């Protein structure tokens, strides 16, 4: 690099930058890899070096793939393939085909993945490229392993290993040995798995290959446990977890990239929890449960708000404006095309494809900003997880219980913390329960039950009792006399309204308990601290920004209808009444209320950062596939050029909120995609990232009139005084729900249980 810069040889500089990126990628330093790759790409683009761009684009795609950003990876791989075909060089094409195949495999399209792997293998063999051939053979083996074809997987792995050993390609050797060990474990060959995993770890340590340094010890830990060697098993899991903790500091990009990266790395944490629970070491098991949950959100809450918009250069700000304008323009063109009497399906398909690419380009731009501005990187791994003793601060009295769930493939664990007797360590009593239900079976039961409630099914009671018996009954002695429950869900339990479960006497949980939900106990600690800081920093009385029943232009209505065919954006007169009444409740001097054409997206963004209570009564649109594109529907700005009226989750993450309470009085605002280790990814997560400690959100498509009743009652309860102090938010919501369930016409949980409080319930 030094010599190429002295010689002012830009082509050599670009090539060297790409190679430095490749070395960092191989070592798992993904943030540095992206930084070097993007520098190389910009230089190659300026030079018109298309052949070099093919290699660099594939490298960027590889980084995004290992960080679980599959859509973004596919975009870069496809750009690389198109350029490679234009240049006509089959070697980089063969490499790119492997990347594309891996991305398709990750999406579950094994036939398309194998097609790309086999095409790459053919090119590699014709070119005499043995190293590329070894990569293709490895990926064919992995695709068969994922589908359970273990003998075929081993056959291809060993062919790949033979080539890699002949070439002394040590990273590939470690990677292949690691997967051979996994197959041997799945086949019950535990001693062989241990030997192979040890070989993989030894090589990975020598070359600093981080992926194998957590995967192989995880396999070894499981094999030791099956062989009745618990101490060796624990040591192996500790080794795997330590590698992950170090690894996560090297992720490139921001919050979304880090969250996706961690999703496939919770297995050693869960394996450790299972081992410790079997040994009745409940305190350590809970500690590892906390280390596996909501780490990204915890990092964000601890980081000073160096907002990305403030760090951008003038050129970067202009690029962001251009990309945002392109998104707004494409959305507008799509809606106009939909309104034509005779729709041109070809043009419509082209516009949708361009919108998809524009979204990916915007995501790629933001990911590149973190590479260009290392000062923006979230400080990772510095926060200590909460201890059992520290949970005493989260237990305000003996009438509160903390319940944390961990859902693994084979069973579910429940940890219950309550105020203990004087002889209990730290004043906190910890109980652990092992629930005999697998992840898959639990998910099926929860999904079926939630759908029953959402459809107003009158036959829901047996399922409500069954789930109570399964999830809460084992802890009934611990919960006796408790009035407040703080639930830390896991997996599918994020979609379960615990308040609707029925005990042995046929009473709803909500009738005896105020409930709140938290991503983890450690995050709850930080949210509680954040809420206290916000309370201390402002006046005692809250100031409100309420937005309801936005006037939606035909373009917005048609755009949403186009993407979400069953979604109707009818006017919301009840929502309008809701926010007007809230304005009266809080008082004219402490509230701002916007309805109709005034309920604009640009207004919310400009005013939301200065209020303590934000209440949005509008349509909410859930995007299950891409939860960061879930949206709240608002009015467009007057010109329509700056904001399109669709406030999406990724935009919310860029806000810097001071509100200690955000209420999303809309449909399915508490749903999204359950990310392993992080919880529910969607609108709620986005508002937490933006700085809000408490959210009230919905779990299904709610009914307008009953929602208004519930919301008004909730806010009235917040305003009321009890024993000279304001009641907690969790109790305010409980009282509102109980009042409705005891009223004629709204007794079904559909009407009163759709909203939950997530975060700090104080």
How does this structure look, described?
With 762 residues, the chain is α/β, with parallel strands linked by helices. Among the domains are: 169-248, Tetratricopeptide repeat domain (Serine Threonine Protein Phosphatase 5, Tetratricopeptide repeat, Alpha Horseshoe); 313-368; 390-517, 2-Layer Sandwich (Nucleotidyltransferase, domain 5); 521-759, Rossmann fold, CATH 3.40.50.1460. Helix content is 57%, strand content 11%. It has a six-stranded mixed sheet with strand order 7-6-8-12-15-18, with helices on both faces. Strands 3-2-1-4-5 form a five-stranded mixed sheet. α12 (210-226) runs parallel beside α15. The longest helix is centred in the middle third of the chain and has 28 residues, at 345-372. The termini are far apart. 53% of the residues are buried.
């Amino acid at each position: 690099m030094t010599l190429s810069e002295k010689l002012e040889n830009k082509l050599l500089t670009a090539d060297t930058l790409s190679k430095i990126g490749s070395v960092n990628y191989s070592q798992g330093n993904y943030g540095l890899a992206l930084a070097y790759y993007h520098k190389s790409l910009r230089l190659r683009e300026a030079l018109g070096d298309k052949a070099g761009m093919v290699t660099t684009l594939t490298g960027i795609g590889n980084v995004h793939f290992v960080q679980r950003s599959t859509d973004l990876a596919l975009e870069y791989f496809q750009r690389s393939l198109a350029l490679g075909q234009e240049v006509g060089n089959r070697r980089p094409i063969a490499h790119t085909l492997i990347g594309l195949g891996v991305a398709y495999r990750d999406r579950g399209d094994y036939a398309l993945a194998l097609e790309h792997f086999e095409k790459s293998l053919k090119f590699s063999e014709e070119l005499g490229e043995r190293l590329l051939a070894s990569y293709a053979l490895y990926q064919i083996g992995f695709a068969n392993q994922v589908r359970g074809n273990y003998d075929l997987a081993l056959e291809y792995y060993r062919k790949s290993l033979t080539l890699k050993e002949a070439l002394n390609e040590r990273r590939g050797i470690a990677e292949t040995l690691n997967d051979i060990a996994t197959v041997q474990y799945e086949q019950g060959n535990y001693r062989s798995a241990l030997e192979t995993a040890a070989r993989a770890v030894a090589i990975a340590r020598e070359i600093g290959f981080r992926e194998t340094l957590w995967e192989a010890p995880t396999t070894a830990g499981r094999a030791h446990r099956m062989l009745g060697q618990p101490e060796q098993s624990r040591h192996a899991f500790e080794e795997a977890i330590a590698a992950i903790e170090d690894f996560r500091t090297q992720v490139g990009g921001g919050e979304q990239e880090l969250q996706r990266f961690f999703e496939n790395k919770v297995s050693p944490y869960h394996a450790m929890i299972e081992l410790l629970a079997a040994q009745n070491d409940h305190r350590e098991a809970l500690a590892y449960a906390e280390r596996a949950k909501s780490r990204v959100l915890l990092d964000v809450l601890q980081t000073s708000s160096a907002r990305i918009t403030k760090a951008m250069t003038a050129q970067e700000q202009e690029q962001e404006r251009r990309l945002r304008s392109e998104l707004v323009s494409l959305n507008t063109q799509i809606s106009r095309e939909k309104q034509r009497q005779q729709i041109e399906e070809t043009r419509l398909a082209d516009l949708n494809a361009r919108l998809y690419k524009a979204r990916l380009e915007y995501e790629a731009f933001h990911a590149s900003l973190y590479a260009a501005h290392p000062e923006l990187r979230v400080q990772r791994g510095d926060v200590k997880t909460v201890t059992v003793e520290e949970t005493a601060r989260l237990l305000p009295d003996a009438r509160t219980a903390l319940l944390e769930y961990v859902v693994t493939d084979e069973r579910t664990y429940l940890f219950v913390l309550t105020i203990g007797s004087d002889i209990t360590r730290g004043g906190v009593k910890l109980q652990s329960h092992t629930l005999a239900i697998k992840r898959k079976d639990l998910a099926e039961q929860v999904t079926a039950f939630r759908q029953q409630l959402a459809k107003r099914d009158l036959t829901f009671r047996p399922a409500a009792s069954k789930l109570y018996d399964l999830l809460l009954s084992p802890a009934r002695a611990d919960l006796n006399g408790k009035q407040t429950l703080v639930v830390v869900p896991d997996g599918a339990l994020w979609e379960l309204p615990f308040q609707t479960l029925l005990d042995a006497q046929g009473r709803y949980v909500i009738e005896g308990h105020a409930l709140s939900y938290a991503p983890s106990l450690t995050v709850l600690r930080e949210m509680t601290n954040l809420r206290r800081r916000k309370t201390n920093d402002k006046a005692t009385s809250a100031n409100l920004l309420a937005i309801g029943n936005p006037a939606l232009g035909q373009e917005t209505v048609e755009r949403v209808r186009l993407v979400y065919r069953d979604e109707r954006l009818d006017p919301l007169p009840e929502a309008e009444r809701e926010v007007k009444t809230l304005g009266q409740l809080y008082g004219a001097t402490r509230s701002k209320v916007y309805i109709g054409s005034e309920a604009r997206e640009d207004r919310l963004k400009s005013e939301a950062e200065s209020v303590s209570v934000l209440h949005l009564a509008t349509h909410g649109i859930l995007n299950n596939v891409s939860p960061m594109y879930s949206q709240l529907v608002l009015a467009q700005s007057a010109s329509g050029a700056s904001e399109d009226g669709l406030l999406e989750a990724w935009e919310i993450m860029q806000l810097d909120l001071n509100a200690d309470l955000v209420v999303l009085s809309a449909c399915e605002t508490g749903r999204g995609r359950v990310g392993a280790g992080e919880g529910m990814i969607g609108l709620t997560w986005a508002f937490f990232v933006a700085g809000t400690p408490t959210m009230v959100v919905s779990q299904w498509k709610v009914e307008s009139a009953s929602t208004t009743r519930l919301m008004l009652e909730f806010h009235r309860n917040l305003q009321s005084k009890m024993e000279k102090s304001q009641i907690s938010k969790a109790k305010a919501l409980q009282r509102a729900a109980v009042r409705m369930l005891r009223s004629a016409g709204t007794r079904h949980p559909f009407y009163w249980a759709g909203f939950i409080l997530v975060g700090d319930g104080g």
